[in-house]
Amino acid sequence: MTEPYVLETRNLVKEFKGFVAVNDVNLKIQKGHIHALIGPNGAGKTTVFNLLTKFLIPTRGQILYKGQDITPLKSAAIARKGMVRSFQISAVFPHMTALENIRVALQTFEGNSFSFWKSGNTLHKLNARCMELLDAVGLAEFANTTTVELAYGRKRALELATTLAMEPEILLLDEPTQGMGSEDVDRVVELVQKAAKGRTVLMVEHNLSVVSKLCDRITVLAQGAVLTEGDYATVSADPQVREVYMGSEGSGERGASEHQESAEAAP
Amino acid sequence: MNQPVNQTDIQHGILEQQRSEDRKKLMVNGVLLLLLLAAPFVMYPVFLMKILCFALFAVAFNLLFGFTGLLSFGHAAFLATGGYTTGYLLTNYSGLTTEMGIIAGTLVATLLGLAFALLSIRRQGIYFAMVTLALAQLVFFFFVQSKFTGGEDGMHGIPRGELLGVINLDDNLNMYYFVLAVFIGCYLLVQRIVSSPYGQVLKSIKQNEARAVSLGYNVDRYKILAFVISAALAGLAGSMKSVVFQLASLNDAHWHMSGEVILMTLVGGMGTLLGPVVGATFVVNVEYQLSQGPLRDWVDPILGGIFVLTVLAFRSGIVGEVQKFVKKNLG
C-alpha cells in the first residue's frame, strides 16, 4: 500500500457564525514536495493550517495523513505522529535558553515528561543532540543565551530548529520569512531547503521570490476556496491568479506580507 | 573551523554554570536551615509554626501560579479541607496517631484538588480563576452547613497527640521540629519538581502554551498534575496548622484566605522558590505587629496598600528584586 500523498484533505470546510472561512478545500500534498499555500489576505491560509493541526475544529470534511483519517485527533497527538507546525508569530519559549527550547522538543519522545521526582540532570544526555540542531541553524554559540535576548531572525531560526527536533515527516511552516530583512530571508530559504531533505513541507508564504525558489507545487487560495494549483510557471501564468493575487502587486516581490491582517494571526 | 570541539566546550560551560548555581542554592538553603533550627530558642515556637504553615501554603500555591501560570482563586478550599479532615479524625478516633490524621487530611485535599482540576483546567486566565473561586465557595458553604465543623464556631480542642505514637507533640519544641521537617521536605520536593523534566514542560507551557501543544504535549494533563500536587501540599499545610493550633476555623475556607496566599506569593516574589516563604513570613509578621499596636483596625487596608505598591513598583517581589540587585551589582 503505497500512498503517494502524505497529507490530503477532502472537502474541508470551516464556518465561523455564518462566515465561511474555508470552503470545500481539497489539498493533496505529495511526499517529498515543498508545497506552498498562497493567496491574498483573508484567503484562509492560516485557517487551513489551524485546521490541519487541529488548533481549530473543522466544521465538515476529512483530513488524511499517510492515508489514515486523523480528523478526530487532538493537536498534541498529531504532532507526535510527525506533522509539526510552526507559527506566524515566532513561537519560542522566551525565558528559556536556546538549548532548553530545543531540549523540550526532544523530551517529547523521552517518556519522562511526567517524572516530577527526577533530577533535571537526567536531561543533560540530550544536550549533544541539541547542540547539533543549534549548529545546523548557526546558533551553536547562543546555546546558553536566554531566547528573549536573541534577534528576531535568530528566534525564527531557533523555532525551525525546535520544529526539526521533532523529526517531523511533514513540516508546516506558517510564513517563515514574515517580517524579515532580505539577508535573513536568504538564510531561511537555505535552512528550509536543508530541512526539506527527506521530508515534506507545506508552507504559507507571501514572498513570491521565496516561493519560486523553493516550491515544487503551489496551491492558490482565494476567499476560502482553491483557485488553482500547479507549479510556479503554471500558477503565475494563470490570469485568474494574476487578477486576485498579483494584479496590483507588480512582480509580487515581498508581496503583501507587511500588511498582514490580524484576522489571520495564529491562535 | 573546528565546530565539534567548540560544541563540547559550550556544553561543558553550560554544565559548569549549572553546577555553580546548584552550589549557590545549596549554600543559601544551608544558611536558612541553620537559622530555622536555632529560631525556636529566640522566638515563640507557635508563632514560628504559624509562619511555616503559611509558608508551605504559599509554596504550594506558587507551584501552580508562579511555575505553571495558573491563577487559582480557590486554594483556601484545600487548606480548610486538610485542616477539617485532620481535626475531625484526630478528635473522634483516639486510636489514630497524629501523622495518620495529617496524611488522611492531605489525601482528602488531594482528591478535592483533582475534582477542581478536572472541572476548571480547560478554562483560561480570568475564567480559570473564577471557576476555582466558585468551587471554593461551594466548599465554604458545605463547611458552614456541616455539623462536624462546628459551623461559625469552628472546631476546637483538636488533640496534638503523639507522633508515631512515641513523640509527645504537646511539647512545643517537638511540634516545631516536626513541622520544620515536613516543611523542608515539601520545599525540597517543590525545588526538585521545578528543575525536573516535568518542570521543564511546565515552564514551556507557562511561556507559550500553543507552542507546547505543537510540540506534542497534551498540556491539560500536565496542568492537572501541577494542580493536584499544589492542592495536596496546600492540604498538608492546613492539616499541620490544625494540629499546631488545635483549631480549624472557617477563616481558612473563606475566599479571603485565597486572596491572602496570592498576596504572600506576589509580595515575596512569584516564580521564585524562596519568594513565597519570604512573602508568608512578611505578611504574618506585619499582621501580628499591627494587631498588637494602635493600628489594629487597619490591618486590611495596610496589607491592601502593600499589595498595590508591590504590583505597581516591585513587580518581582522581595526575592525577585533582591536577585535583580545581586545580578546587577555583584556580577
From TrEMBL, chain A:
Keywords: ATP-binding, Nucleotide-binding, Transport. The keyword DNA-binding does not apply. Residues 246-267 are annotated as: Disordered. Coiled coil: none annotated. SMART domains: AAA. GO terms for molecular function: ATP binding; ATP hydrolysis activity. Residues 7-248 form the ABC transporter domain. InterPro entries: AAA+_ATPase, ABC_AA/LPS_Transport, ABC_transporter-like_ATP-bd, BCA_ABC_TP_C, P-loop_NTPase. Pfam families: ABC_tran, BCA_ABC_TP_C. The keyword ATP-binding applies. Residues 251-267 have a biased composition (Basic and acidic residues). One of its GO terms (cellular component) is plasma membrane. This is ABC transporter ATP-binding protein.
TrEMBL record, chain B:
The chain crosses the membrane at residues 26-47, 54-80, 100-119, 126-144, 175-194, 224-249, 261-286, 298-318. Keywords: Cell membrane, Membrane, Transmembrane, Transmembrane helix. InterPro entries: ABC_transp_permease, LivM-like. It is found in: Cell inner membrane. It comes from the Bacteria. Its main location: membrane. The keyword DNA-binding does not apply. One of its GO terms (molecular function) is branched-chain amino acid transmembrane transporter activity. It is a multi-pass membrane protein. One of its GO terms (cellular component) is plasma membrane. CDD domains: TM_PBP1_LivM_like (cd06581). This is Branched-chain amino acid ABC transporter permease. It comes from Marinobacter salinexigens.
